[in-house]
Please model this.
Amino acid sequence: MIKILIIILFFLKFITPSYSSTKQDIINKLQKIDNLIFDFRQTIEEKVEEGSCIIKYPKKIYCQYNNRNKKIMVSNGKSLVIKNQRINSSYIYPLKKTPLEAILDKKYLINEFKKLELRTVNEKYLNFLLVNNNNKINIFFDKKTLNLVGWQTIDIYQNLVIFFISNVEFNKNIDEKLFKLPQLN
Model:
C-alpha cells in the first residue's frame, strides 16, 4: 500500500503543474525588466479611464490619461503627483502612503513573491496577494506568457481600483525627464 502511494505521488509530481517553478519563472522574468511601457484601463468603482504609462524601476511611473482633463500621474520615486492639466490643479502624495510604493519596487516584489503562494484565477491568470502598509495588493500575471497584466488595490479614499495593462513593451530607451514632478500650483 505504501509503495503504491509513493508511486502515485511520484507521478503526480510530473502530471500536475509545478507552481514553484512557475513562480520562479515569473521572478526570473521580472528580474530582467528595467522598465515597462504599456496601455492601461483603470476602473475606480464605476469610473473607467484609459491611457498609457511608463514604469521605470525602482519606483518611477509616468502615466497620461486619455480624458478631457488631460490628467497625468508622475512619481519620481519619493512623491506621487496627479495633475489635471485642463484646470491646472495638482495633488501630491508621499509615494510610501500609496500602494504604488510596493508595485513600483521590483526588489520588494521579488522578495515577497518568493514567500507568497501563487494562485490561479479563472484558469487564465496567476495571482499574488501582497499586504504592504495595510494595503492589500493583488498582482496578476497572464498564465500563458507570465507577463504582468495588472493589479487591484484600494486607493487612499477606500475605492476599489482595478488596473489592467496591455500592449506591453520591455526595456526601451526612456527619457528620465518624464519622471520630473510637474509644477504644483
Remarks:
- The longest helix spans residues 2-15.
- The radius of gyration is 19 Å.
- The chain has one domain: 18-179.
